[in-house]
Amino acid sequence: MKEQWSSKLGFILSSAGAAIGLGAIWKFPYVTGMSGGGAFFLLFIIFTLLIGLPLLISEFIIGRGSGKEAISAYQALAPKSLWTMIGRLGVLGCFLLLSFYSVVGGWVLIYSVLSIPGLVITGDRDYSALFTHVTASPSIVLLGLALFLIINVIVISFGIQRGIEKVNKILMPLLFLFFLILVIRSLTLGHAYEGIRFFLKPNFSNMTGQGVLYALGQSFFSLAVGFSCMVTYSSYLGKKVSLPTSAATVGIMNIFVSLLAGLAIFPVVFSFGLEPTAGPGLLFIVLPTVFAQMPFGEVFLCLFLLLFLFATLTSSFSLLEVIVSAFTEGKQRSRRKVTLISGIIMFIAGIPAALSQGSLKHLHFFGKTAFDSTDFLVSNLLLPIGCFFIALFIIHRMDHKRVKDEFMEGHALSQGWFSVWYFIMKWVVPIVIILVFLSTLGLF
């Protein structure tokens, strides 16, 4: 019998855990900083509510409607057709995403270990130099990558209830608590208002077509849609749970965490004269700066880094689960053996991205390092493509009655809500994705 989530709360927290991680806490602040601040955040909210949330509902419908993992779901709903390529694209995308995601997870893991004996906040340390040292050292980054993947392999090998769900129920609430503590401290800094204004006041004068694409990609990345991660997660869900309500809860939690991330980071950036365009290292430089100003800062930094590590892990769990379930569900294969082999292959695949800040920093693809090129390929190309074809599938290929039944199951929403969602999926989602792509290519 197929394993299921033990409760609605377990499903929501696990889905939120898949969404809330590097996307909201690590990537969102530095992409916002590089894309103009408030204008980017406003577009991100619009795209999340108008595009990301309807797509999240769509993946939930496909997953629970089929009761299958990413590839098998499309095979079951559209047998002997090319639509199964959506699932295969999802598995490939999860593989590529996890290959560089695990690198950052390794950074967080190394920082967490260093913070336990108080080795991050020491004297007048140059936090930028520390980050450069950690990310440029081959032995450190490869060790971090390996340990991060080992944790993933252990948890995924235990399955849904005893692995993924159990971890999320404990760690996600704790992450919110410590995030609020960090925000409160950041807002009391001297030039906090300048950071808040940069983050919350829209200024479209510096917004470009690429910035719009980044906002759209961020809405996909942070909600974990486009690669059928949520198809796999919702395939373990019972019929009594409302899919739109669950999706709305995950979406709102994601926007809230992104808001907290901005309020935690940008007041510090402007108070300490840092650059909001500092890039991927922004969080690793800003966090120690914040906690260094707090009483018992070493303790708080250690706790937050550990919780951030677990939030990062909950996101990576969903990526590895998609890969593992694709090779185990309905097949006579050991889940633990497939998980172990997947982890080893993932480690090998992640080496170029891991070394892209150090010994392989001169290796470029289309003008970008291995890390940045993989990030761009996944977040700004493959994710929107996956979302586009999921929108086409849910409207033009999946049985309309099954779609409606899954949407309406488990709640008392009116017919009007289904009609609104269906209209958005049929017209708004595909058109917006196409227009943003044309704008990025300079054709619109």
TrEMBL record:
Q: Which UniProt keywords apply?
A: Membrane, Symport, Transmembrane, Transmembrane helix, Transport
Hey, which family's this protein in?
A: Belongs to the sodium:neurotransmitter symporter (SNF) (TC 2.A.22) family.
Annotated organism of origin? Pullulanibacillus pueri
* UniProt keyword annotation of Membrane present: yes
Q: Which Pfam families match?
A: SNF
Q: Which domain of life is it from?
A: Bacteria
PROSITE patterns in UniProt? NA_NEUROTRAN_SYMP_1, NA_NEUROTRAN_SYMP_3
UniProt-annotated location(s): Membrane
CDD domains listed in its UniProt record: SLC6sbd_Tyt1-Like
Gene Ontology cellular-component terms for this entry are: membrane
Q: How does it sit in the membrane?
A: Multi-pass membrane protein
Question: Would you tell me the protein name for this molecule?
Answer: Transporter
Annotated NCBIfam families? Na_transp (NF037979)
Any one GO molecular-function label of the UniProt entry: symporter activity
For this UniProt entry, which segments traverse the membrane?
A: 9-28, 40-62, 89-114, 134-158, 170-193, 213-236, 248-274, 294-317, 338-356, 376-395, 416-438
